[in-house]
TrEMBL record:
This is Uncharacterized protein. It comes from Trichogramma kaykai. It holds the Pfam family Ank_2. InterPro entries: Ankyrin-SOCS_Box, Ankyrin_rpt, Ankyrin_rpt-contain_sf. SMART domains: ANK. ANK repeats lie at residues 114-146, 150-178. It comes from the Eukaryota. The keyword Repeat applies.
Amino acid sequence: MSVKSAKLELFEKMERECNSVDNVADISISHFNKDLSHTSPVEVNWILMCAIQKRCFKIVRYFVRAGIKVGRLDESTQTAIHIAREGYMTQQDRQEILDLFFNIYDHLNYTNDNKLSHFHMACENGNVDMIQRFIDHGVDINQRIVEEFSKDTPLHYAISSRRIEAIHMMLSNGADPNGRIIHDLTPLNRMCWQITVISPENFILFYLSTIRMLLQYGSDVNTQDDNGNSPILNLFQCQPDVCTS
């Protein structure tokens, strides 16, 4: 039997048995020990990626309950954490499953071909405990991804989580508040621009609080995007009641 067939067979066994119960607590934590004893970290990672692609999140929950970890992989390895952002789940499921994955992969900061790292994903998920752990282990706090239409830093990902505590943790630990991304937008300029495309009742207090925090940590109010607009010019495209808040 080939290695690929063996890991596929194990995944299908896990999928079948996890889906046969309402709660993975009904499965013994040692149930798959014999199977996993012959499985490499690369194969375990593959099984978890399949669990995401097949939307069998019970496998992920079982791994955490049983204390199963992914052994050390090559640093440049695509993991289940990377593909969890590719539309396989709802936002609510994604928040839960990513947090579970950080228990399975620990603090190891694997990156994919686009330099998207586990640290970026912890920031995007607003997981302040994991953000701090990565920082404590010396992660590059300003590492950019290299996707065609995005050069975001971890700070941009933290802002997208809409969790003020995650943003504050990044800024207080030295994240660059003036890092430019696509269209030459700094975090401040992008926040001011985004206010123009949201309604006041949707996260407006978060946006204003984040803008204040960025200013407190040295965001440059005179930077210009590729349209020549400064943050304040982008801000004044919004509704008058927002601009005077």
